[in-house]
Amino acid sequence: MDKFRMMFQFLQANQESFMNGICGIMALASAQMYSVFEFSCPCMPEYNYIYGIGLLIIPPIWFFLLGFVLNNNVSVLAEEWKRPIGKRHKDPTILRYMFSSIAQRSLIAPAVWVSVSLMDGKSFLCAFSINLDIEKFGNYSVMNGLTETDKLKLLARIPCEKLFEHQEIREAASRYIKCISQACGWMFLLMITLTAFLIRAIRPCFSQAAFLKTKYWSHYIDVERKMFDEACKDHAKSFAKVCIHQYFENISGEMQTLHHHRSTGKDDSDDREEDKRSDEEKLMGIRAQDDMNKVLWNWHTCKPPLALRKEQMEGENNGKLNGNAKGAANGLVNGHTHEVAKKEWAVYYSKV
């Protein structure tokens, strides 16, 4: 279990590298899926085009959506986009940066699928075989005496080797369409490569400071969300521990007294006191369910501004974090709290 925990922590600490690895795996998976995929053109005029074009479009869309599903930053982006402004303004450039980062990674696997499909040419042949002028590929007498419907049916059978009788005509037509498909594939790769080159080359021409600011705060939003989740888990663990201890103390006072008489070791008593103090500190004065619900609600509706300053807490701290928040920025409410000595607190403001 410890090994899995260490691996999970490593993936969290190296999330960008992990997501790049996921995108690479998806790209390889798309190419592998196409290689094992059994291409079966219906060889019917009504369905050839739908099947061929659908094979070029539907799987890339699925890979693109799968890339969004596997990216953890999607929930961060949605949360930042939908949250109320409160005391922290939302920067649209940060949201655009996060979306573009997710979209760029998600486009890798679809691009690989489209490239492999065009290079192979089967879907292109299936989609456009009925548009061929068969007179260019050999003995056109096979079309004599056929109605327009019969001609379309004959042309639709070109992708199917066993259904088309004239193999020479079929081979010439197949080579012609696959040549066009491969040309489209190379143009597609060239367009993608040129676009990526322009993005990387033009980006330094703009304000690098603005880009660094956007990148920094997008990382901050992700890190803040993770640390808030960890703080909630620690508080929930301490809250449950203290609640269970109080429960057993209330219903079995005699057993608790007997337990104290039996424990003669001073070190054990000191350890218990230290653990109890540690749990009390993690509770941060929040000792009621309604208080915790309001803390979480205020965090969502009114996140604190982003500006740090040091502040010595002397005497009473006006209840900023221990009981008299009155809906203040840090989100605690009245009641169910007691004073907890604090040495130093950080107040957040931001112009971002």
From TrEMBL:
Q: Which PANTHER family match?
A: CALCIUM HOMEOSTASIS MODULATOR PROTEIN, CALCIUM HOMEOSTASIS MODULATOR PROTEIN 1
Q: Where is this region: Disordered?
A: 258-282
The entry's protein name is Calcium homeostasis modulator 1
> Mind telling me which residue stretches traverse the membrane in this protein?
21-37, 49-70, 183-202
- Specify residue ranges for compositional bias: Basic and acidic residues: 264-282
Intracellular or extracellular location(s): Membrane
Q: What is the similarity comment for this entry?
A: Belongs to the CALHM family.
